Amino acid sequence: MFEHSLSLAVADAIATATLEKGQSEGFQPLTVAVLDDGGRLKVLKRGDGASVLRPEIAMGKAFGALTLGMGGRELARRSQKMPGFMNALSDLAGGLAVPVPGGVLVRSAEGRILGAVGVTGDVSENDELCAVHAIEAAGLKADTGDPA
């Protein structure tokens, strides 16, 4: 079945599974944002004990991935190689793009971008692990910016 958009039910399931994965792994309290393919917030969940700016960071990780259509790992690599471009991107996006791991594109089975998940609270690699787990548990493809 071809998915045309990320439903609220699926976005909520991804957010819940992300937090549950973090808890089961013993990670620091996580916050997760799920955006649709237009960069609009579908679901935001802030785990108990998560610090104050975590919602903005989670949204920035997801928005950064959507902005250039690539996962946070590739954005981080490009940020190292092209800091001027990434600074300009941040300025153009009103400071909303956070180019680090933990921003994961959500793709359909056919590869279409349906949205993005941003996770923050632990180290970026653990944030990303939780997002990937949840996206795949929802039957969708996770795109971290690294080859599969």
Automatic annotation (TrEMBL):
It comes from Roseospira marina. Coiled coil: none annotated. Pfam families: HbpS-like (PF03928). This is Heme-binding protein. InterPro entries: GlcG_carb_metab_protein, PduO/GlcC-like, PduO/GlcC-like_sf.
